[in-house]
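Running co-folding for zinc ion.
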Amino acid sequence: MHILSKFFRNKNGSVIIIFAFCITVLLGFCALVIDYGIVVHKRISISNAADAAALAGAQELIFNSDNAEAVAKSYLEANGADPLDAEIEVYDSDTKIRVTVKSKVNHYFARILGFDEGNVEATGVAMCAPVIGVYEGIRPFAIEKQTLEFGVQYVLKEGGGGGSNGNYGALSLSGNGASSYVNNIINGYDGHLRVGDYVETEPGNMSGPTVQGVNTLINRCNHTPECTHDNYSSNCPRIITVIMVDTLNVNGRSNVRIAGFARFYLEAVAGHGNQSIVTGRFIKTVMSGELGDIEDDFGLKGVKLIR
Ligand SMILES: [Zn+2]
């Protein structure tokens, strides 16, 4: 008390003024630190929402661009951002989508200094583009390049009597022979392949290894209900990536050029003896991979954030 009273008796109250000034500065710092933290947190939050909405909208651009904006809005809502505060633009021939979210942030300490609220803004931009490179998981089946229709059944490996010059659609991706082939069916090839690369065919019917590999994969789907080509879990082992090649009309073991990639729902391996035929249905899906321009677009697209 003695010290305090001494302060207050100080000439012209200058100490009180200094004290008040210090308190004001201190409160100012509080306002800056705490309210700045709130602003940063809000900006991260709406930035994540804008990115998620842009990615989801970009996926929709591939299949139904009219729906992209609605899907982006639903992702904003699910991520805690108000769609009414967002601007969504689809551009560049329906290949890109920009989602800008604006939000007000209530200040707490800064109110003392007269700042009741602030504005934050975040933008997410995503694009869809053909997949020109796949990093992992490619299965050792090749089909000739063609326009594929969603939901339609295609032969991924021919049976005896089919194919050409000893090639039935099987590929040698990580080494020749049955064991590499089976391993590639079950686990996928773990290397990176791109459009324009050459891969080697695996000639011969490979019936036993084909049946073993394909049935192993099919049996690994333990989803309930069991996955189908139009209702499947995205991580289902039956969803596979195969290679589209310029031609399979080659003699014996030969190099064939990769023209693109396609995703299939692995449907069945049918037939007996050397008649094992592998069928799959072309599916609507996007996948992660290397994106870019491609000469012929066979329908496999990916999405990525570009801002
Ligand atoms: Zn499944």
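Result summary
Residues 2-128 form one domain.
The chain has two domains: 2-128, 136-287.
Job closed.
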